[in-house]
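User:
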Amino acid sequence: LKNILRSEERLKEVVSDELTEVAKEFGTKRKTLLLEEDSLEEKIASQPLEVQDTPCFALLSASGRLGKTKDTTPLVKEGRSEHDLLLSSITTTGRADIGLLDSQGIIHRIHMLDLPLISASNETRISLTHGLQAEEIISHTHPICLLPLDTQTSTLAIATAYGKIKRLNISSTSKDSWEGITLEENDYVIGAFLCNDEDEISLLSNDGQLLHFSASLVRPQGRTGQGIAGIRLKEGARVIALGVCPSDDISACCVATIAGNSAALAGTEPGSAKITPLDRFPSKGRGTGGVRAQRFLKGEDVLINGAIGTAPLLAMSASGKPLDLPEIEEKRDASGTPLESFIAHIASI
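Assistant: Predicted structure:
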């Protein structure tokens, strides 16, 4: 110790070694892409000439990263990598404009030219580790989904925490951002998906109730509409998940529910999880209370997370690490399987 204190060179060497050990144990991969400063202006200026207006995917990951693919080659679901969980994926073109809906119901215009190109890892997986952060476009809210601005054949189903459901007639304006749904005070958007009359809309509340009904029961509205009652909530309950599934292929969709204790500090307890086929839940009328989706174990009183979508559903930690979900449980109101790690996000690939 005296030798270290007497020698500044030795002190820096010890500090460097210790920081290297800390980085090996706790470090994460860099999430931003570094470019040479003197070439950045040239890259941006030349990009519009280099990018072709060909079909591609625009992607939004569960950890808030945005990116695009070079073409419409199907995304492969075999294998997992960090930040490969997608909240939203739409087909567009390399020079188009698309929309990004946030949790306050605002749609933000995004130029596809601004999105980084995401490469397939080993030509099998998509990783958004180096994607553009959605928070660079929106602030103080959460990104919900991507949407095309040139569609005339589909609507956007939007669900709020207070149980409202709205089908938005998608239309573009000359503004950089505009309102997609008018919200009540303290209400917020929890999910949104492209939707047609033939689809089935599902809503999951944090008190363990699930309701699904035909999308044709929700009349499409313009930008300023507040939506209509989707699910009847008990006092204090909130909607935590929305699903939109084709009615003729509802058997391909699953419901993921994760139960926990409302008194616990968020992220401190893993909870218990259950994956159930959506067709095990009977269809009810819009505006009703639905049916129980998971029986709570001792110490559980709330669903802390959930998702509804095409199987297989995948899970991820807050840091982007892939996590495992339990096997499918056929009984719709069974209790869950205890988890070893806290799941922050559930979605498709």
